[in-house]
Amino acid sequence: MIKKNLLSKIRQVKGMTLLEVVISICILGLIAGPFLSVFVFSSRHNQQSARVLEATFIAQGRMEKLQSMDYLSAIKEGINQRTEQGGYYVSISLTPYLPEATDVFHIVLQGKDNRSGCEFYVVPPSGNNYIQITEVDSPINLNLDITGNEYALNMTSSDNYRSLTGPLSKQGSNVTVFINMVQYKKEYPVVFNSDFGTANIDIIVYDTLSNRDKLIVNPAMERRCSDFIYRDRSMVRTKVEVYMTKEDTKPTTMLQSILELEN
Fold first, then answer.
1. Beta-strand pair 150-156/161-167
2. Fewest beta carbons within 10 Å, which of 22, 52, 174, 193?
């Protein structure tokens, strides 16, 4: 009797049909699908955030390195193409800076003992090139001509000739030339000749009472600031970009700052 009842109950228990199993799997897939997508997205986002963080650390390190350099060394650092660092590629650009909308030229004359190891150099507005003389041993003639939004700069001395040409980022409407000779102690004069066409020009000279006669500006339209010893520095707009690959057009991270660097 007991066995018959047990067999009867077993027969009454129904199992899941194949159709029910398939439907259950479909429902489970519909429920799990969005959660799986969220997991994949979260994983990718975390990887991207980690890459951005690594790139930011590299950019910050390069910015701090630039801040510890002298002006000419920093300019040379920025002229290099993308350089590999820690699996990323770093691009640096430095340009002479003024808050106003103007193209800025930096002309620096120094003494023999200086951090840059160079007694004379010129940096144009683009910051991607420069003229330099390691040791000034004769008079220097420097000519700057501006036509439209193009400039031509050439320098001559007894055994040196250097020239630069290039565009002006502000269409040549406003140009500022800083001539910094606070540390210049040589007896050789420097003549700065300029032809600015229709551009609005501002020439600012930082000198000392003992060396101001060593600079001749033609035409004589400069503003002189004498014995401002603390002005032996130049302000530059600095940009550090970090890329995932050498061919990338969009940086993973970018830092910008205005630095005041020792000449």
1. antiparallel
2. 22
Say which residue the tokens 């020009």 belong to.
201
- Grade residue 18 by pLDDT with cuts at 50, 70 and 90: low
DSSP 13: -
Q: How open is the CA angle 197-198-204, to the nearest 5 degrees?
A: 80
Question: What whole-number distance in Å separates Cα of residue 205 and Cα of residue 191?
Answer: 13
Is residue 4 over pLDDT 60?
no
Burial class (CB in 10 A: 0-12, 13-18, 19+), 119: buried
Q: Of all residues in the chain, what percent are helix, strand and coil, respectively (each to 5)?
A: 30, 40, 35
Looking at residue 213, the DSSP 8-state letter turns out to be G
Can you read off the two tokens belonging to residue 67?
Answer: 């801040």
User: Residue 9: what pLDDT?
Assistant: 53
Residue 254's closest CA among 237, 263, 236, 242?
A: 242
Summarised one tens digit per residue, pLDDT across range 140-189 is 999 999 988 899 999 988 778 889 999 887 666 789 999 999 888 888 99
